[in-house]
């Protein structure tokens, strides 16, 4: 068993339970998953099928970054091969199998300043991600605190098969976002699937998730009035989000 970084492990467990609170309608049963960087070479991720709301350390598996990052460049793998690779990436051979979404967690945790990742399937956000409004929810902002907590824009990922294909598409769309906006995303929206919040702390992951839910509820409510929703202008969003960070772009893209 690797010696766990108890601080980041405890903070990850607390974040998982916060995201799994039933009344928040972010994830039920085995839905959703969370992760945290353990050290430069490994990270903790929720085991396949574990329940976020009642997560204990037995429901987390430590994995090597390099083993999973290598999969992102593979063009074709069978489900069996992916399963074998997930099992082989564990630091402890007796630990449970990591979630198949561990592959995108590995990639996102390599971005500068990202230490925690939370992926959920919120009812309010999925209500819009299952309509043609999904892309608008990612691209536009409707109130100032949404910009503060969710960033000037979210990454939008068209529907992909969960697992390796989804992880590859997330990497491609996130790299395109960083090239265009020169800053890290706080939020990634997955068409017909859910959201991913990423940040330096569990608090920022939780804040982005809850604010994304609020924004989705407001946009759904605005659409239900029958009037055209009024979005913030690009200048208003930029005023709150501040200037792009060139340094970040270089670091994130390895330039
Ligand atoms: Zn999912």
Placed side by side, the strands forming the largest sheet appear as 3-2-1-4-7-6-5
Please count the helical segments: 11
Count of distinct strands: 7
CATH architecture: 3-Layer(aba) Sandwich
- Percent of residues in β-strands: 5-15%
Low-confidence spans: none
User: Mind telling me the CATH superfamily name?
Assistant: Class II aldolase/adducin N-terminal domain
* Radius of gyration over all CA atoms, rounded: 18 Å
CATH class annotation: Alpha Beta
Could you say how many structural domains there are in total? 1
Global shape:
globular
Cofactors, ions and other ligands in the entry: zinc ion
Order of helices and strands: HEEEHHHEHHHEHEEHHH
CATH topology: L-fuculose-1-phosphate Aldolase
Question: Given the helix and strand composition, which structural class is it?
Answer: alpha+beta
Helical content, roughly?
40-55%
User: How far is the first residue's CA from the last residue's CA?
Assistant: 36 Å
Mean pLDDT: 90
**Sheet with the most strands?**
7 strands, mixed
């Amino acid at each position: 068993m690797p010696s766990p970084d108890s601080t980041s492990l405890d903070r990850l467990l607390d974040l998982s339970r916060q995201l799994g609170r039933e009344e928040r309608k972010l994830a039920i049963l085995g839905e959703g998953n969370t992760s945290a960087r353990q050290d430069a070479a490994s990270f903790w991720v929720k085991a396949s099928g574990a329940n976020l709301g009642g997560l204990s350390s037995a429901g987390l598996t430590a994995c090597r970054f390099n083993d999973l990052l290598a999969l992102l460049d593979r063009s074709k793998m069978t489900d069996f091969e992916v399963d074998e690779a997930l099992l082989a990436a564990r630091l402890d051979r007796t630990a449970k199998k990591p979630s198949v979404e561990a592959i995108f967690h590995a990639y996102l945790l390599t971005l500068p300043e990202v230490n925690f990742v939370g992926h959920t399937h919120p009812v309010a956000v999925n209500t819009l991600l299952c309509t043609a409004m999904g892309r608008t929810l990612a691209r536009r902002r409707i109130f100032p605190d949404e910009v503060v907590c969710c960033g000037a824009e979210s990454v939008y990922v068209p529907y992909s098969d969960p697992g390796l294909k989804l992880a590859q598409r997330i990497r491609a769309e996130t790299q395109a976002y960083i090239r265009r906006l020169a800053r890290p995303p706080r939020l990634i929206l997955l068409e017909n699937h859910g959201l991913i919040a990423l940040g330096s702390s569990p608090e920022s992951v939780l804040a982005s998730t809850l604010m994304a839910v609020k924004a989705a509820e407001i946009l759904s409510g605005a659409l239900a009035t029958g009037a055209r929703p009024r979005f913030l202008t690009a200048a208003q969003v930029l005023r709150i989000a501040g200037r792009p960070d060139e340094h970040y772009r270089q670091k994130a893209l390895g330039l």
